[in-house]
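Morning run. Coffee first, then this:
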Amino acid sequence: MKRNRTIISLCITVFIIFCTSSCRKSDNENIKPQPTPSQVIENNLKAVLDSVLANTHVPGLVAGIWAPNEGVDLVYAAGVADLETEAPMSADMIFRIASNTKTFSITVLLQLVDEGLLSLDDLLSKYFPDFPRADEVTIEMLANMQSGIFDYYESEEVITILYSDPTHLWTSDEIITIAALYPYYFDPGTGYHYSNTNTILVGMIIKMVTGMSLEYNISTRIIDPLNLVNTVYLVGGTQIPGFHSCGYYVEDYDTTLPELSEHLDVSRFGAAGSMVSKLHELRIFAEALTDGTFLSVDLQQKRMNCLDLGNGAGYGMGLLKYNEFYGHNGEVEGFTSLMMNAPTRNCTIVIWYNCDLEDANPTSLLSLIPKIIYSNMN
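And here it is:
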């Protein structure tokens, strides 16, 4: 009987242990682990990005938001790359970076200043004596958008050619000839107006000073040293090299427009916006842009001393500023993008949409994203 009681007792003990273990396991399954502070931030960032897709006509987006001091390392792709096939967006896609190209072009210009090959005080007339009022415009005014020179991309001539001949191969001479037909927005140096013509002129000056193309200068001075293997300055053509999404719309939501990723010849932008890149490579460039990789200390400081445009925004020499963030943005038919770095925060933001919509632009998120990451940021 003792033996039987022992067996019974052992069975009861095993049963109790099993029940206790099962109950604890069941209780643990019902208790969800609490997210870390960085996970909370990343979840909130994803919610904002998802809301873009839910509340606008943006087909797809890719975002990289890195704030190592806060533990944030978010790479997020959402939406579709192709409205017909519904293929998903990917962080590995190459895209048209549009006016982010200006930052590359002006960086080369400033390197030539550091090398003593030209001066920011040089007059435009030194290089283009026949351009209207060229003796009133300095190189610095071209770089910081204070020249007052007309933006060729706002001209009727350019719009007409784009619609009638999308694959027209543009030359820089052709572009500045069109710009010269129009009056200045204001007297040089007395105001601010964003003009693509300024950077076209910069690209031509770089070629005059170095004897080499802008493509060569950007490649050897920026792309190669940073090992940006998917970042390319395109001289012409309609193709995007490599894996890329479709591109949609031109400012307005218009479904009658063709798919635009490879519809127009990129030569229409040249130094002002002809480049392509991808998410992680723009991060590398944006961080090098603010850490002094490219320029002397004095010239870097001068570059980051931006003209105040109000509401936290500013513009310097090929440099967009918003509060503590520096970089640029880009807008071209079918694509919009943003690359910014805050050196004081060790934070980088790169976002792009596969569309061009006036009411949905990555730049608008710049007033919101830092507030999600930093509770002490206004």
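Confidence is low (pLDDT under 50) at residues 1-26. Good start to the day.
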